[in-house]
Description:
By secondary structure, the protein is an alpha/beta fold. It folds into 2 domains: 13-24 and 94-224, Rossmann fold; 26-88. It contains 8 helices and 8 strands, in the order E-E-H-H-H-H-E-H-E-H-E-H-E-H-E-E. It has helices at residues 26-38, 47-50, 58-65, 75-88, 99-108, 121-131, 154-162, 177-185; strands spanning 13-16, 23-24, 94-95, 112-116, 140-141, 170-174, 189-193, 211-213. The strands form 2 sheets. It has a 6-stranded parallel sheet, sandwiched between helices. It has a two-stranded antiparallel ribbon with strand order 2-3.
Amino acid sequence: MNKDSSPSRFPPLVLFDLDGTLLDSAPDMLVTANRMRAGRGLAPLPMTVLRPHVSKGSRAMIAIALPGSTGEVDPILVREFLDVYQQELGRHGAAFDHVDALLAAIEQDGARWGIVTNKPEYLARQLLPLLGWQERCAVLIGGDTLAERKPHPLPLQHAAQQLGVDIADCVYVGDDERDIIAARAADMRSIAALWGYRLPEDDPQQWGADALVQQPAELLRSDVWP
């Protein structure tokens, strides 16, 4: 119940993926990839080429950005990508439309929200103050925070445990199949964010999410939540 004892619109704890769910980070990623390409005498990539790969992580973006880097991506390239991305962090991207209103509504309802991402924790933590979320995000788990990362359920389980919230009282929102796999393995309800980054062959209907939502604004409706 919220303060006026009316029915809550949201579960007690909402956990979100970051890139492609709360944050449109593709512009930062594109500048990063194109800086790496420029250093190798390559022409810039258009957004349409890189955007579908953003939620797949740095290795997937490097494989698209640098010819011949498919397969096992050299860790040196990953380090270069992350170093350049850190310089561009938050300079070009922004929260998706209606995300700020959604987070404010969750808080007003008396619920809490947090982030479980595969982005390295140090980068995710640097982003929070740029978005004005550092005092509002109840828990942040990065891809290197624990021994496992999504699609393993441990990050979601750990986030709920840190806040003392039962799994049954949590919902996870993410735009990638790994997000939904992790939620299902954790016995946590899930929402597939269809506004995020997907490859043409990705089919969210097959992921097994409890709900599919087209835009963040729809999450302001209580009937959308599983």
